[in-house]
Amino acid sequence: LDTDADLSVQDRTIAKVRLVDENLKIGDLLQVAVDHRPELKKYEQMRLAAKDAIRVAFAPLLPQVFGTAVAATTGARVARGGVTGQSAVTTGAFSAGAFSTSSGASTGPSGRDKRFSLAEVFQLGIGIQWTLGGLGTTEASKVQVAKWEARKAQLEFARELTKVYKEVRDAYLDVIDAENLIAETTDAVNSSREQLEVANIRLEEGVGTDLDVIDAQRDYTQALIDKASAIIKFDVGEANLLRAMGRITSDNLTAVRPLGKSQL
Question: How far apart are CA 131 and CA 157, in angstroms?
């Protein structure tokens, strides 16, 4: 809220206000806390980052694989006197990615003409390069360090998760204790009120004293104070439960209806 705004009390009578639906089970409350507590989101991202760091550290231990593919029109098919021969003569050569070809006609030993036609040549290659420093011990040590860092992040996440679980369970138990205390103090108020009525009747009938009435009034006033304290404890416990769940906002604190499953 704006710090410049002046707040005034709307209801001056203490009342029991439920902010979280009583039908929600502790498992539901814990799940809401896991989904909304910012601390858990922080440690979860740290855990995932540490886990990915293991892959990064392991990358230098992997070989580099590369491939090549070449398609060229080179080589020759030889035909003599219109008849295709059984042999082929390659007239092209590869050099630094370039090639040369030649074609034409020449005369063989028998005096018959040779005719050349170009042929396609395809070349596929694959290469693997593996570079290891210190026989791989340096990279292996980095991988081990990354694993320990990931383990550390996992333990920190588990510790924070346990802390959140404890806060939710403690707040939940405080609400239950406060609710039971309200029931007990209500019975005490009713009992002390009856004792005060009896003390007044005894005084009117002349069988009681003013001291008995004063003691009954004191017990009745103390019972009212205890009930008011129990109600305040319950309301504060509800607010603490909202905070433990990660859902404490001004809207939820002043909502007319308690936070239920439909709002989670």
Answer: 36
Q: In this predicted model, what pLDDT tens digit does every residue of 172-181 receive, in sequence order?
A: 999 999 999 9
DSSP string, 90-141: ---EEETTEEE----EEE-TTS-EEEEEEEEEEEEEEEEE---GGGGHHHHH
Using CB atoms within 10 Å of the CB of residue 157, give its burial: 0 to 12 exposed, 13 to 18 middle, 19+ buried: buried
Helices (H), 113-256: 137-205, 210-245, 250-253
What per-residue confidence (pLDDT) applies to 159? Answer: 92
What is the chain's length?
A: 264
Adjacent-strand bridge partners of 118: 76
Dmax (CA) of the chain:
159
Beta bridge partners of 77: 117
Contact 43, 162 (CB under 8 A): no
Answer yes or no: are the C-beta atoms of 19 and 129 closer than 8 Å: no
The helix (run of H) or strand (run of E) holding residue 74 is strand 64-80
Confidence of residue 88 (pLDDT cuts 50, 70, 90): very low
What is the average per-residue pLDDT within 192-196? 94
Write down the pTM of the prediction.
Answer: 0.64
| Of 66, 80, 192, residue with least CA distance to 126 | 66
Q: To which residue do tokens 């990615």 refer?
A: 97
